[in-house]
């Protein structure tokens, strides 16, 4: 009997992604064996959650909500500001691999829109200048 069960899968996936700056197919297969869960279940959970990815993530993952309420609150201003400061667009990594940029589903900061996340930290009520200052803190 495994020391884990299904409710452990999501936290373990998130932890693995954080430690390795992304998940690989080999990681999921290894977790499937370690957690004693079917391979397709581990892949299914990974593909369902927009915070999990089979692509390299970068040390700092910038996430912008693509849901309608944020779309109506200057989402494009955030995308353009990140692109101007880091020269990357959604789905891309900086050349040094430090920053990844992802569009994601609602992350619960609707009242702070326009907002973004960098790893687990939410930044809200953004302006182009505020975004530039935030990103430069990580450089
Ligand atoms: S709708 Fe964008 S954070 Fe909730």
Give an overview in words:
It contains six helices and four strands; from the N terminus they run H-H-H-E-H-H-E-E-E-H. It is of the alpha+beta class. It has helices at 6-20, 25-35, 39-48, 68-71, 75-86, 128-138; strands spanning 60-65, 99-104, 116-118, 121-123. A four-stranded mixed β-sheet has the order 2-1-3-4, with helices on one face. It is elongated. It has two domains: 6-48, no CATH class; 60-138, 3-Layer(aba) Sandwich (Glutaredoxin), CATH 3.40.30. The site of FE2/S2 (inorganic) cluster (FES) has 9 residues, from helix 4.
The helix count comes to 6
Beta-strand segment tally: 4
Order of helices and strands: HHHEHHEEEH
Can you tell me the CATH topology of the largest domain? Glutaredoxin
Structural class: alpha+beta
Unreliable stretches, pLDDT < 50, 5 or more residues? none
State the end-to-end CA separation: 45 Å
């Amino acid at each position: 009997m495994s020391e884990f069960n299904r409710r452990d899968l999501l936290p373990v996936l998130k932890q693995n992604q954080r430690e390795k700056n992304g998940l690989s197919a080999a990681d999921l297969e290894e977790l499937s064996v370690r957690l004693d869960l079917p391979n397709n279940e581990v892949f299914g959970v990974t593909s369902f959650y927009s915070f999990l990815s089979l692509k390299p993530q970068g040390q700092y993952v910038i996430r912008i909500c693509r849901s309608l309420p944020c779309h109506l609150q200057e989402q494009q201003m955030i995308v353009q500001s990140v692109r101007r400061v880091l020269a990357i667009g959604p789905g891309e990594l900086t050349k040094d691999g430090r920053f990844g940029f992802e569009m994601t589903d609602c992350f619960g900061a609707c009242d702070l829109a326009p907002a973004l996340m960098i790893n687990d930290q939410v930044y809200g009520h953004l302006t182009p200048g505020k975004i530039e200052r935030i990103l430069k803190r990580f450089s």
